[in-house]
Each structure stands twice: as C-alpha cells, then as structure tokens.
Design a protein that fits this description.
heterodimer, A: 2 strands, B: Rossmann fold, Rossmann fold, 2 domains, 5-stranded parallel sheet
C-alpha cells in the first residue's frame, strides 16, 4: 500500500514537471546511475559472449576475489572520507603478509625464519592475526599522528611511511639467513583456518573459503562503526568540514588518529589472509595494492571531496573492479587493452561522481 | 610540548643522517680486517678496491639469494663492497652509478634495470668512464643486437645466462614429462593436452623467450613422439598467455588468473586445464595454491603438472611435496662465485678480458658465449626432484 502510494506520488510529481524539467529528470537519472547501467550492460554483454561468466563457480570466484581485496578498501575508505589517502597501505599489507608467513611456518620445514615458536594451534593463529593487526595499527597510528599533529597532507605522511615500511620489509626478509628470499612453507593448519573451505555447495560443486565469511563479518563490523558509533559520525563530520567539526566539539586530533589506526589494522588483516591464501610471500608482495583499493572506494562513491561515502559503496566498488578483471579475462581481451579499459572506467566513475557535487553547488 | 616534539623530530633527523653516514663508512670497516686476512692469496690491491654492486630491485626473490651469496663471497675475499637498490627504476640506477663513481668506487657490478636495453647499458658505461664494469643477470643487449655493447669494449664483461636457455630447458622438460605420462595428463581423454601459460612481464626478454620456447620446444618433443601439439585452454585468447598486470612475476597474479580460469574450466565441464606453465616459480606457486583450493595438487593423487623457472626454495619444497612438477634451476651461488672471482682477479691487477677468460674456464657450469671474449654464461639445470 505504502509502495503504491510512493509511486503514485512520484508519478504526480513527474506529471507536474514541464517539458524541459522532464527531459532533465531523465538525463539526470541516467547520468547519476550511469555506472550501474554501464556495469549491467557490460555484465550482460560478457555473459552473452561467454555463458560461463555467470555460472555458479564463476560467481563464487568473483565473490572470493572480492573478499580478498575488501579489507584494504574498507580501511582506506576512512582515510578518503577525511579527504586524505593512504599510500602506505600496500607496504603495510606486505609486511603483515611476511610476518604472518614467518610466524606461522610449518614447524617441520627445513628453513625457518624463527626457530623457537609454539606449534601451530588455533590460539597461536589468532594471536598472530592480532599481532600483525597491531603492527599495521602502529604504522597507521604514526600516519594519523603526523597528519593530525602537524596538519600534513596524508599524501606526504603516508609516502614517507610507505618508504619506511618497505625498508622494514626488506630487513625482515633477511632474518636468520633468509637473504631476502620468499617466506614460504606456511603451516597447513593456518591455510585451512583462513583459505580452507568453510562449507561446500554440493549442487554447484564449489566450496566457500573461510575468508569470505570473515569478509562478510568485517563488512558488518565496519558498517556498524561507520553508521552507529560516535567515532563514525565524528569521522564524517571531520571529513566534510574540519573547522565546523572542531567548533562543535569533535576531537579532530583523536578522530584522525583513530581513522588511520583502524585502516592500518585492516591492512594488517588483509596481509594475514594473503599469506594463507598464497602460501608464499615475497618482499614485493603488496606493491601498488593501495591503487586498486583507492580506485574501488572512489568508484563506490567515497569522494575525495570528503565526508561522503558508505560501506555499501565500497563493497560495490570492489565488486566492480573484480568483475572487470574476471570479465576481461573471460572475453580473452589483450592485456594492454585491459589497462586502458580499467583506467577509462575509473575516470568515468569519478567524473560522474563529481558531477553530483557540481550540480549541487 | 610543541618544543619537545620539535626537538624529538630534529633528533630523529640527525639519527637518520647518522645512519646514512655509518652505512657509507661500512665498506671501510670491512676493508680493514681484509688487509690482514686474505693478504696471502689476494694481492694487496684488494684492500684498495671498492666494489659497488647495483641491484635492479632489492625485493626480487631470486636476486636476493644471489645477493646473499655474493655478499658472503666478497666478505670472505676481503673486498670492500656496497650494495645499491635501483628500486626497478633505470633513472635511479644511473644516478647511483654516477654518485658511486664520484665517491671513489673503482669496480662496478651492475644488474641492469631495463633488461635487454643496449642504450641503458651504454649510459652506465659512459657514466663509469674508464672503470671496469661487470654486468650480470639481466641482459645488456636485446634480441638481434648481440655484440653491440659487449664487442669491442675491453673494459666490460657480462656474467649471466643465455636468455632463451631457460625457456628451451623448460619446454624440453615439459615435452619429456608429457611423453612419459600422456594418458594420465590428458584428463578428458580427447587426445590433446590443454595448457595455461602465465607470463611475468611483457617487456622482459627472458619472459618473452620463456613464454615462446616453453611451448614450442614441448611441442617439438611431442610431435617427434607422435602426439599432437599443446592446445591453449582458452580459444578466444589469441595471445595464448595471461600476463601479470603489474609486470611483477607475482604469485598473486598467478593465483588470481588460475582461480578465475578454474571457475570456467573444470573436469565437470570436461575442459579442465591439464598443464600449467609459468615464467617463474612465484607465479607457478600462485597457480598451485589456486589448484589446491579446487582439490588438486595436494599430494593426494589428483595432480595437474605445473612447471616454473628459478628453483627457489619454496618451489623445491613444493616439488618434494607433490604440488609442482618441475622447474629450471638458475644457479645463484654459481652466479655469485663467478662475479666474485672476476672482481677479485680485476682487483689483483688482471684485465677484464683475462679475468673473464679465467672465470669461464674455472668450472663446467661456466662457458664463454660464442663469438665473445667477455660474455660468460652460467648454465641452467633442470630440477624435478
């Protein structure tokens, strides 16, 4: 009843418009939703050319790939809401992945980074996860401190910590005669706990790994933090107008620090999953990962203007990037062209996003 | 509070600068004991030799093992050295070379960033002036321009691998394996083997050769034994390879491509990928992780053969555990030994050409490239167990 009432009202509103406004109504509607419309066309096109694209196993694969890149995007999203960015994300991710692999090696392996560690048990795996999240959070805290204390642009601060973290990574990979080589021989228990199957859908012959479940929990947690906590509201207040937030009694310093710290913990968690998923980590792991995370956020409507964005948008942005990756592969498109298509989509998405704000002003 | 912070920051900066200072004096420190220890075997000139070693990227897994071996070799030989990280940027590397020359280093050991670029190598050579330069690992001459850099220049040498050799060796290994196990590998029994190929970097000559010969040579072995040629699994991909989008030869790329492929190609659909060929071990291991997620290659029978190159420790472990089938060993220790021997000979007063000839003759794994007197090849070796 309420629904028909809504549509009837909309219809009345629409009929009240004159010809010019009607045309604007449609063009605005099209442009504001252009990303969704284009993605729908793209998905239909891919599915027509290659019917496997929408097969259950392919959809599960897209969900798995998205679950891998979600944590970093969720973390970096907060930095973008504050009109900032985080260039250190990929390296923090790499450090966390290296640490996770080193702390959770198979104790029987011939070459160990740390020789005296407890046997791999559930408790130790959780402890290592917390440890790498704390390590990430510490780097995030440093980022946040310098951004908030000295009013430095996060671009510069995180550029510096990116370099510092890379140096730490290179040193970490040389521990105990490893000489910078890959860290591998990750314990099977660790792999099972993170990337092993959580449950199996027999009808489709696919299994869902644990990290997909963790990603869903993480999305719910971040949604709660962003929308239902004082910290979340403060984050948006600082992002949309720092002076106004300060005057209204928001602790800008603390909020900025906490956003970056939370982001760092997220990168730490993402690296933890990566180590389990790949089983071998190199010093180059994580290089440039922040680019995809930032792109996903921006495609999903987290604007560099600040103060706008939501968790649903970030999830959508991550899925858009992953669908593009899978679809371009399934279409067998030349890798050179894939860069151009990806770049064009990011550019178009951001322009359309910005257009909304320009219209408002 | 503000002042204390400012003071703290200033102290951090002083420490950072002090750290730079101490690292540049490190070679002097290593040189000091050197003067006494190896005096018996090396000429005293070794004490005056300062070697600068330029790495294309400190994060490279294989070259990290070379670096660990070379650092140990040079220390044992009592030669002062310093490592530089080009951070995958040819411009950075050139600036480092220029700075090192002005800083008094007198032997340059260069792992060129832009593999196969004669121009980049020439820039390094002109920046070095009359100092001896030993290039290693990454090619200094592209395909079809062999000799343009190395011939006619007596003050430089190259120690590396014959770029196409790894691809040839990988291809032959794949062919031999398939001929011996054809029925097992051909899961769907259609008489053809469908394969996936993962390429590390579109602009790297080694990657190009490996992508080409890994398949061509396998086909040659197969047709000689009366079998049909390999078939790329995805008919709509005319490149017949999947390329790491970052050109980083990474396991993440191998993993993501393979899991995407497996979503479409499976035994249930009767079009399972029956063979995986990767340009390096990292990509092979990434693909292996994806296959393991689908219940293959975990050592319990169901096995898709995977071939890589490099024989890194994780790959050797994977082969032992039944996850991977074979790889091609690039001898990191052999490479480091050759470089150190050449540097030591030059430090001892011999010419670059004499030093090269001596290294090439010193062991079976070294050989002088045909038509050169300063291009030393370190042999690859197949690794399957």
């Amino acid at each position: 009843m309420a629904k028909t009432g809504y549509f009837a009202r909309k219809k009345e509103e629409y009929q009240a418009l004159d010809a010019i406004d009607r045309r604007r109504y449609w063009t605005d509607g099209l442009l504001n939703n252009a990303l969704y419309i284009l993605m729908a066309i793209f998905i239909i096109f891919t599915a027509v050319v290659n019917k496997n694209f929408l097969s259950p196993s392919s959809i599960v694969n897209i969900i798995m790939l998205a679950a891998v890149s979600l944590p970093m995007a969720l973390g970096i999203g907060g930095c973008i809401v504050l009109t900032g960015t985080d260039l250190s994300a990929g390296r923090v991710f790499g450090l966390a992945a290296g640490m996770s692999a080193a702390f959770l090696q198979n104790r029987m392996a011939s070459k160990l980074i740390f020789e005296h560690l407890p046997a791999t048990s559930g408790g130790w795996i959780i402890l290592v996860m917390l440890m790498v999240m704390v390590a990430g959070a510490v780097i995030g805290l440093v980022n946040g401190f310098f951004v908030a204390k000295f009013s430095l642009h996060p671009f510069i601060v995180t550029l510096a910590t990116q370099l510092i973290t890379y140096g730490i990574i290179l040193m970490f990979f040389q521990i105990n005669g490893n000489g910078g080589g890959p860290i591998s021989n990750v314990a099977q228990e660790f792999k099972n706990a993170v990337s092993g199957p959580c449950f199996r859908i027999a009808a489709w012959n696919v299994s869902i790994p644990w990290y997909v479940i963790f990603a869903i929990i993480l999305v719910a947690l971040m949604w709660f933090i962003w929308n239902k906590t004082r910290f979340g509201k403060n984050m948006f207040a600082v992002g949309s107008n720092m002076e106004a937030a300060k005057v209204s009694g928001v602790n800008v310093f603390l909020t900025t620090m906490m956003v970056h710290t939370l982001a760092g913990a997220m990168y730490g968690y993402a690296g933890f999953v990566e180590a389990a998923r790949l089983g071998s980590v190199t010093a180059a792991t994580g290089l440039n990962n922040e680019c995809d995370a930032i792109a996903a956020c921006v495609i999903g409507g987290v604007s560099f203007v600040g103060g706008t964005g939501n968790i649903g948008g970030i999830v959508l942005g991550v899925f858009v990037l992953r669908i593009i990756f899978v679809a371009l592969n399934m279409l067998g498109i030349n890798p050179n062209l894939q860069y151009i298509i990806k770049g064009a989509i990011i550019l178009a998405a951001c322009s359309l996003d910005m257009r909304k704000y320009l219209v408002k002003k | 509070m503000k002042k204390i912070l400012a003071l703290l920051l200033a102290v951090v900066m002083v420490f950072a600068l002090a750290a730079c200072g101490s690292s540049s004096s490190a070679p002097a420190a290593t040189a000091a004991p050197a003067a006494e220890a190896p005096a018996a075997e090396e000429a005293p000139a070794a004490a005056e030799t300062k070697v600068a070693v330029f790495w294309y990227a400190a994060s490279d897994a294989y070259l990290s093992t070379v670096r660990a071996a070379l650092d140990a070799d040079l220390e044992a030989a009592g030669i002062a050295y310093q490592d530089f990280d080009g951070n995958n940027n040819q411009g950075t590397q050139l600036e480092q070379v220029q700075t090192a020359v002005t800083n008094g280093f007198n032997v340059l050991v260069v792992n060129l960033v832009t593999s196969g670029s004669a121009d980049a190598a020439q820039q390094i050579i002109s920046a070095a002036g009359d100092l001896p330069v030993i290039f290693f690992n990454r090619a200094v001459e592209g395909d079809g321009e062999e000799g343009t850099v190395l011939n006619g220049n007596d003050n430089i040498a190259f120690i590396g691998t014959d770029a196409p050799e790894a691809g040839h060796m990988q291809g032959k290994m794949i062919g031999d394996y398939l001929v011996a196990n054809y029925e097992d590998v051909d899961i769907n029994g259609d008489g053809e083997i469908s394969y996936a190929m993962f390429m590390g970097d579109a602009s790297n000559v080694e990657a190009i050769y490996r992508t080409q010969y890994g398949v061509e040579d396998a086909n040659a072995v197969l047709t000689a034994a009366g079998y049909p040629e390999l078939v790329y699994f995805n008919a709509s991909n005319t490149d017949k390879y999947q390329l790491d989008p970052n050109g980083a030869w990474s396991s993440a790329a191998g993993n993501e491509f393979m899991s995407t492929n497996l979503a479409e190609y499976s035994e249930a659909n009767g079009n399972m990928i029956e063979l995986v060929i990767a340009n390096n071990d990292d990509m092979a291991l990434g693909a292996m992780a994806a296959l393991q997620g689908a219940g293959y290659n975990d050592g319990n029978g169901r096995m898709i053969p995977i071939f890589g190159v490099d024989a890194t420790q994780p790959a050797q472990d994977a082969i032992a555990a039944g996850g991977m089938t074979g790889t091609v060993k690039q001898d990191a220790q052999g490479m480091a030994d050759a470089i150190c021997a050449a540097v030591a000979a030059i430090a001892g007063g011999s010419s670059v050409l004499d030093a090269s000839a001596a290294v090439a003759d010193s062991a079976d794994i070294y050989s002088m490239a045909e038509g050169f007197n300063n291009k030393i090849f370190v042999a690859y070796a197949p690794f399957t167990a």
